[in-house]
Each structure stands twice: as C-alpha cells, then as structure tokens.
C-alpha cells in the first residue's frame, strides 16, 4: 500500500508551517500516524560543529545516524538531491499519511494556503493552472473550481483530509 501524501503550498509568509503544525496535532488526536516533510530550497545543517555526528561527516561519512531511546536522525550526503518519490519511499513507510510543506512544482495533490492580508495571486490558479490542486484554504471568500476551506477551521480541514485520503 502506498502512503498518501498531501502537500501544502503558498507564498512565503502565508503561514504554511503553522497550518501544517495544527493539522498534525489534529490528525494525531484522531489516532493517525503522521509523517512531515519540509522542502528547503537552501542548504541546511542539523549537525553542529564539534559534535560527534558533525565530526563523522567531516571525516567523510556518507551517512551518519544518531539514535536515542526516543528518536533517530540521519544525515545522508547526495551528489544530487533525491526526488520526492525516493525520499517518501525510503523514509515514510510507517505512517498513515505524509504532509509536506513546499514541493509546489511537484505533481503531488496540493492544498494552497491564501491569506487576505497577503493579497497575492494564487500559485496554483494564477498564471498557471496546476491540475494537482485539490483545495484552497483561505480566510476570505474566493471563487474557485476546487473546494474552499476556512483557514480557522482545522477540524474541517482534517475531515477533508480523512475523507479524501484515509477512508
């Protein structure tokens, strides 16, 4: 069985992280195992200079894993960024759903976040028409060809996600 994946997209500063964080909490309260995947277009570091894992990487380790009784983290070096499909297949086999932030150019099903205060054209219904858009979540009425969800109603968003991906 393939794990369902839903990507949240929006322009910077719209509140993607906050929304996904609230949805994760709601889905967890309903008993689901939730994976989260964030795309970072910039270089990021989770190792800290001088720590053992950083030292292993500096020595040339291609993969470094840190484990504890409660969590595990892996740092893997790549010559080319893996595809989202490769990342999903290797990292998210033990969850009911994966929620992603970003990946706006992927063919993943997407919900776009829109805020009145941002007053920007939608990414997926502006200059381009993204067929993978399945809904928009907004704090103002919009005329769209996909369902419009209320930005302040996380329970309704979770109901939508359940009905679409988990039943």
Describe this protein's structure.
The protein has helices spanning 16-29, 52-58, 84-91, 154-166, and strands spanning 5-9, 34-38, 63-67, 72-76, 97-101, 110-114, 133-138, 148-150. With 167 residues, it is α/β, with parallel strands linked by helices. The protein has one domain (5-44, 80-166): 3-Layer(aba) Sandwich (Rossmann fold), CATH 3.40.50.300. The protein has a six-stranded parallel β-sheet with strand order 2-5-1-6-7-8, covered by helices on one side. Strands 3-4 form a two-stranded antiparallel ribbon. The longest helix is centred in the N-terminal third of the chain and has 14 residues, at 16-29. It is globular and about 55 Å long. The model has no long low-confidence stretch (mean pLDDT 91).
Q: How do the helices and strands line up, and which of them pair or pack?
A:
Blueprint: E1 5-9, H1 16-29, E2 34-38, H2 52-58, E3 63-67, E4 72-76, H3 84-91, E5 97-101, E6 110-114, E7 133-138, E8 148-150, H4 154-166
Parallel strand pairs: 1-5, 1-6, 2-5, 6-7, 7-8
Antiparallel strand pairs: 3-4
